[in-house]
Amino acid sequence: MPWSDSEALLGAVRSTTRDLLAGSSGNNSTWAIIWAAGAAITSSSQKQLDSELAQLELILATIRSELPLSARRGSIFYASSAGGVYGGSANPPFSELTAPVPISPYGEFKLRAETLVQSFAARESLSCLVGRIANLYGPGQKLEKVQGIISHVAKAQMSPTPASIYVSLDTIRDYIFVKDCAELICDALDRLDSVTEKDSPVGVTKILASGEGTTIATLLGYFRTLSKGHPHVMLGSSASANLQAHDLRLRSVVWPELDYRDLTPLPAGIYATILDILSGIQAGPGAR
User: Fold this and answer.
1) What pLDDT, on the 0 to 100 scale, is given for residue 39?
2) 35, 44, 109, 128: which could form a disulfide with 48 (CB 3.0–4.6 Å)?
3) What is the rounded CA–CA span in Å between residue 75 and residue 277?
């Protein structure tokens, strides 16, 4: 999508929505819109967060204008952030039953976006799935965004510049490999479709996570083993560290049977990330 050009963006949204509906026009056909976009991160300014929320609202209004009543047999998925919404919550591991308590403007933004998408779905009689995603990592992550410790440490292993870590090494996170998360989203949308009645849309919020908490110290230990050398990192301090929770272990209690699957082991996922970044470096600037 041409995100930086509002007119072109809305035109692309209209044409893509029309193509989606045309491709699912059969009597028993269903469709889904998966919102996995977003440039905001924990350190984004309030202005950036407000702008992204306004853009989401405008896009939803554009989609709505293209939805004829006869075609409203569909669902929408929104990629939210478990770390953002549960940053200040008590008693980990956190589940869908845990009250969200954001400690950053980013977390507040994610909750507002969830509500925006849920309200849109309710008005349009669409089923809605909100996926509160754990720390997502793997090949393809945008390295220019100041997030994703695994990608940044992997890049630092091949660079003279160390990766900076601003939180304590006993900080706990749940890491889920991008391919595993994508498959889980698709399976959850299939489940959503299977429980949706024609005139009774369903709204579901599910945590998408590995269910395993890993400290940053353990993470660095994997890098030490894989690279056969010390991780190229530098410990420091930053005001943004106050916006990071210490323990973000997660456990889903919604459709838990979907979580009974073989996930990519963290060392294997780290290795795949390293190979992807190495491939990008060898290909040269602008190749990806």
Assistant:
1) 85
2) 44
3) 35
pLDDT digits (tens, 9 = 90+) for 102-119: 999 999 999 999 999 999
95: its two tokens: 């589940």
Which among 39, 43, 38, 55 has a CA at the least distance from the CA of 106?
A: 43
Which class in CATH covers the domain with range 31-283?
A: alpha beta
Name the pTM for this structure.
0.92
CA-to-CA separations, 284 to 278, 280, 287, in angstroms, rounded? 10, 6, 6
State the pLDDT at residue 26: 74
Q: Identify any residues that bridge with 133 across adjacent strands, giving them in sequence order.
A: 81, 208
Write down the residue that tokens 């579901």 correspond to: 204
Half-sphere exposure at residue 201, Cβ-oriented, CA atoms within 13 angstroms: 20
State how beta strands 233-235 and 127-133 pair.
unpaired
What's the average pLDDT block by block, 10 residues per block, for the chain (288 residues)? 91 94 81 90 90 95 87 89 95 97 94 97 94 95 78 90 89 96 96 81 96 96 90 77 84 97 96 91 67
The token pair at 8 is 């072109």
Residues 6+ apart with CB under 8 A from 96: 132, 205, 206, 207, 252, 253, 254
